[in-house]
Amino acid sequence: MNLAHRLDRVPSDPLDLLHRLAEPLVLARAGGRLRLTCGAPTRADEVLGWAPPAPVEGLGSPSFRAVHGARTTYVIGSMALGIGSVSLVEAAARAGHLAFFGAAGLSDAVVSAALDELRGLGDRPYGISFVDDPSDPEATAARAELLIAAGVPCIEVSGLLRCARALVRLRCAGLRRGADGRVLSPRRIVAKVSRPEVAERFFAPPPARVLRALVRDGALTPEEARLGATIPVAEDITCEADSGGHTDRRPLAVLLPAVLAVRDRAAATHGYDRELRVGAAGGLGEPQAIASAYAMGADYVLLGSVHQACVEAGTSAAVKRLLAAATVTDTAVAPAPDLFAVGAEVQVLRRGSSYAAVARRLAAIYRTYDSLEAIPPEVVQRLEEEVFRAPLAAIWEETATYLGGRSPAQLARVSADPKQRLCGVFRWYLAKTARWARDGEPERRRDYQVWTSPAIGAFNAWVVGTRLEAPENRRVADVAEALLRGAAAVRRARALAHVDGWRLSIAAASRRHLLAGS
User: Fold this and answer.
1) What is the dihedral of CA 459, 448, 80, 100, to 10 degrees?
2) Could you give the maximum distance between any two Cα atoms of the chain, in Å?
3) Residue 476 CB contacts under 8 Å (≥ 6 apart), including other chains
4) What is the pLDDT of residues 433-453, one digit of tens each?
5) To the nearest whole percent, how much of the chain has pLDDT over 70?
6) DSSP E strands: which ranges in 67-136?
7) Under 8 Å between Cβ of 277 and 235
8) Domains along the chain?
């Protein structure tokens, strides 16, 4: 879809002129009337406003593009269970956008096969997600070793509140000093955070005690540890605001400035030989929000929810249809499967799904009883008939078999504790719901757990009446380009909005190119 050429049809229309992104704009008064033109004003013009060229490649931080080898500063965040698929990552990378494969919840064998495919991208920008599982440190460590061995160039870290051992090994293994004296790393870390104090830990060098322990255990060489102590754990930190999946639902307008201040203090304190960058994520579903994030100082933007409905996303057609029909009020927060025992929550699609209500019901039962045996028989009967559709004893046997095959040490811990067995059974349902959604299981449609934020509703409203309204037309490269072009046009429209007597709908400016290309 070549939107740029279509805009030439009515060059005198101010909305069309805004989308001539390679040309400067001049707002002038001539003969008592305001007019917008591309190029230089005439002698008779009284210049009232000016907007410079705004190519999409010019949004955000030049160093981000250089470090990651990307054309833009638009990032496609990882979506677990392979929803952020190989196809999605490849399509984004070929369009010049950094994208992350969603490895969370997948076996090492599946992740390894995906990485074999992604290596074909060569120097194009791509990466993979990495999450910490506090209940299974052995699996977390094994996943880190897999990513190191596979030579993954970039890793998106999420869900970590501390610089865990596996993360420090990911950051420091293979560090060396270049010919110019700078420390070179075989992989880059992009960390998602929702708290300024966590950002402070990631912008600092790895903890000395963790470096010493890794050297003692032979997981790092003394030279790697020395070099690691001079660089930040992550050079890129993403402020995760009101996002889909795990979220603290913090407002981006509050979180981003706080983390930017942390970045500035860290740069001054540690005196790094490299630039630290801050990105924005959460609630970014249409161009006005994206332009605002850049205007607040974001070096890059990261979007997830809007891409889950794209053609290349690794989820079912049923889920994509549900997402494409969502509004900004169709989400809810519910207990998270992986951190159920500690009360963590995820933001999910409420429209068309009962997951949020059922998950909250299970959480209430879990807080009330200390074992499966303590649950009253009438409650057990309702759970078996309405939720699990199987005896709880059979669910435990299936859970034990799964844990035994994945991590015998974890199975031993869970089996020895009645409360953990109860948690394991309830987590069976919570985890299955996400897979039923991904696979489009028709008999479990009401149970679908679909991670998303209100951003998908904002995107849907923005594309009404255009080609991108239908999910079968939402290809990730087209979605990214449309949002970036819209954000650039919004930026130019806002630069001229201060002129007295000049009226131009910024909302209309953000989508003029969509209508021209429909």
Assistant:
1) -20
2) 88
3) 76, 88, 91, 92, 95, 99, 307, 310, 311, 312, 313
4) 999 999 999 999 999 999 999
5) 97
6) 74-76, 98-101, 127-131
7) yes
8) 3-53+466-516 (no CATH), 73-314 (3.20.20.70), 323-447 (no CATH)
